[in-house]
Amino acid sequence: MSKTQKKPWWSPIAHFAAHGFVGTIIFLIIMVPAVLLNHLVQYLAEFGISEFTLLILGLLEHFIVLMDAGLFFIFICIGAYRAIKEFADE
């Protein structure tokens, strides 16, 4: 869009909604392996796999979940900041 043409008032909202939607999809895609890893740990526990191995897999699962949630939160905060900044620039 050229500088002489004014953006519609809802443009920052649409940008934030689009980024939020895509970020949520990516969050869910990354969360699926963590859920599957949880099921794997429970399945392996039934077979008497060593506690150390189960602990490592459990820690990996928790790490994936925490990193995914933390980065998703940061992504949403940055998107909100940019939307507010875009509103202020109009």
Features:
rod-shaped; 90 residues; single chain; mainly alpha; transmembrane
Task: Describe the model.
By secondary structure, the chain is mainly α. It has one domain (11-89). The chain is 83% helix and 0% strand. It has helices spanning 11-46, 51-89. Helix 1 (11-46) packs antiparallel against helix 2. It starts with 10 loop residues before the first helix and ends with a helix. The model has no long low-confidence stretch (mean pLDDT 91).
User: Could you report the average pLDDT, rounded to the nearest whole number?
Assistant: 91
Largest sheet: none
Distance between the amino and carboxyl termini: 14 Å
Low-confidence stretches: none
Strand fraction equals under 5%
Based on DSSP secondary structure assignment, what is the total number of beta strands? 0
Our Rg estimate from Cα atoms comes to 20 Å
Helix and strand element order: HH
Assembly state of the chains shown: single chain
Number of domains: 1
**Broad shape:** rod-shaped
